[in-house]
Amino acid sequence: MAGIGFELRKLANTDSFWKFLRSQLYAGILSNGAWIISIGILIAIYFVVNHFLGPKLFAVQFLVAVTYLVASSLIVSGIFQHSLNRFISDRIFEKKYQLIRPNFIAAILYLSAASTVIGYLSAEFLLFDQPLAVKLLMASSFVLLNIIWVFSNAFAGLKKYRFLLFSFFLGYVTTFLLAVYLYQYELSGLLFSFYIGQVILAICLFIFMLKTYPSNYLFSRRFLHFMKLNPALVYSGFFFYLGLWIDKLSFWFSDNTSTLTLGALRASPLYDMPVFISFLLMIPGISTFFYEVEANFSRYFHRYYDAIREGATLEELNKKHAELVVMARNCILNTLKIQGGITLFAILLAPEILALLKLAPIYVYLLRITTVAAFLLVLLIAQLNLFFYLDMARNALYLTIIFFFLNFALTYLTLYLGPLYFGYGFAMSLLFTNLIAVISLRESFRKLSYYSFMSN
After folding, report:
1. Domain limits, the chain
2. How many CB atoms lie within 10 A of CB 288?
3. Quick check: 423 and 274 in contact, CB under 8 A?
4. Which end of the chain has fewer surrounding CB within 10 Å, N or C?
5. Maximum distance among all alpha carbons in the chain?
6. Three-state DSSP class for 265?
7. What is the pLDDT of residues 281-332, one digit of tens each?
8. pLDDT, tens digit, for every residue of 36-61?
9. How far apart are CA 409 and CA 415, in angstroms?
10. Is residue 157 a contact partner of residue 88, using CB atoms and an 8 Å limit?
11. How many CB atoms within 10 Å of residue 106?
């Protein structure tokens, strides 16, 4: 953690505006680079196909297929992401490096087995009218994506950002180059390109794990015991991703807002495009939060807990606690300032943004509300991360469950009320969840010293 934070502080501690901008860009690349690369390459494939062949159904089917793969794999792998990340971090703190690789391999094997069953059954039932090649490629890509999310989340938690960036770049550039040559085979060719890219990405991550954490053991199930003892870590990831996608799923499977695109898979162009654009607009806010946490908050966090372990006086602890609270507040406020500016910009210039992207003006209304929702999502992600920092996973779990049920219920209410209310379910669920999170986080910081001593 110290290495990344030191580099960011070194870049930012200067009177030069360009060096400060460089630090923000560096933070943005590290925190969002993999996401930007993957989305950018997939969109590039879509436009390449349209450029050479004109608008084609199989290009749209490809984007819809990948969207379903990403959404479903994030939800399934969310069960392992936080728990395995925390298990590895604890073993590093204890300097028990030999236990990391065998437990990681065991987790990957369990996840692969479950995702293989889910993937192939889903492909058989949902893609009933597609050739065998499409079914196999979809199911295999689903398994690989589950593995990749667990790897990437763990390596991000361990601050291996540069290697993650390199791996995603290599995997998705391979996907793009293959797609340029294989688009003549239509959907099967594009899915094969995507699959090979994921294979290369998964191999890179797996080899890096083997080299970084050598061990004399091949397989260990100790992490399963850890998961049983920490159910909040297990289910918080699952409910967060389920909550994040439940409104999209609701629009996809509503006859009034979607169309059949691939087998039984449906898409909702009216809702999907504004949400996609608003998600991209989250990048500056996420980058700012990443910078604030790594460069500032983490220092005060470790100072506070070092003081506890070293037996500091009550006065010293209170001082460091106050500093930590101030840094947490600044972390949130600075993130909201940046994301708030982006949100205001997007709301005012929504017609121009759509015109630039050659999209119909009908999207203006939805783009504005989903941009506000994206602002609230950045705030929720920031608060959830602080709860995990404070080792309060149970609070994070409660918030993700609330988010899921609110988004599910309010989205269905807006579907019933009609197009004028589309997007409000997502935004209002985030607003209510954030209000609860603010109250809970404030109380958690107030009682932090008590929790810290009682847990030790």
Report:
1. 33-260, 269-454
2. 24
3. yes
4. C
5. 72
6. strand
7. 888 888 888 878 877 888 888 888 888 777 777 788 888 888 888 999 999 9
8. 566 667 777 777 776 666 667 888 88
9. 10
10. yes
11. 19
